[in-house]
TrEMBL record:
Protein name as catalogued: Growth arrest and DNA-damage-inducible, beta a
One of the Pfam families matching this protein, by short name: Ribosomal_L7Ae
Record-level GO BP terms: regulation of cell cycle
Family: Belongs to the GADD45 family.
Matches recorded under InterPro entries: GADD45, Ribosomal_eL30-like_sf, Ribosomal_eL8/eL30/eS12/Gad45
Classification via Gene3D superfamilies: 3.30.1330.30
GO cellular component: cytoplasm; nucleus
Signal peptide: none
Lineage: superkingdom: Eukaryota
UniProt-listed PANTHER family: GROWTH ARREST AND DNA DAMAGE-INDUCIBLE PROTEIN GADD45, GROWTH ARREST AND DNA DAMAGE-INDUCIBLE PROTEIN GADD45 BETA
Native organism: Astyanax mexicanus
Length: 159
């Protein structure tokens, strides 16, 4: 590895950590303001009725979900809808961490918690969600699109 590659990897890792932290802050802030929609079907319903108020779609999976064909089809349709309606999208791995961030029990293996595979951040016009974390995540999505990466991926790490 060259020095440029090592420095580039370090910078990319720091950027990913910063964006992951911003995403967690955004989800907590949105949850406090009742601006989250959780679940694949609930998210699809909301986007069908009111896509203009959706500012971020988080699609979350872990390795065991990669073989779930139905979930992958839902993700493909949700991604297409988001691209058509200029909604930022993030693919996230780390369902356990996502459940912890949203205050749910960390045991997502037995499906006793909710469906965290799709989470929408809504931004109602009457009372807009204003936080630096939303700006940071949005900038990351914009930068990714400039690099032709339409659905950027993040990994949420256990803490």
């Amino acid at each position: 590895m060259t020095l440029e590659e090592v420095v580039g990897c370090d910078m990319a890792d720091k950027k990913m950590d910063t964006v992951s932290q911003a995403l967690e802050e955004l989800l907590v802030a949105a949850q406090r303001q009742d601006c989250l929609t959780v679940g694949v079907y609930e998210s699809a319903k909301l986007m069908n009725v009111d896509p203009d108020n959706v500012v971020l779609c988080v699609l979350a999976t872990d390795e065991e979900d990669e073989d779930d064909i139905a979930l992958q089809i839902h993700f493909t349709l949700l991604q297409a809808f988001c691209c058509e309606n200029d909604i930022n999208i993030l693919r996230v791995s780390g369902l356990r961490r996502l459940a912890q961030v949203l205050g749910e029990p960390a045991d997502v293996d037995n499906n006793s918690t909710g469906d965290f595979h799709c989470i929408l951040v809504n931004n109602p016009q009457c009372q807009p969600l204003k936080c630096q974390a939303l700006q940071e995540v949005g900038n990351y999505c914009d930068e990714s699109r400039c690099r032709n990466q339409w659905v950027p991926c993040l990994s949420l790490r256990e803490r």
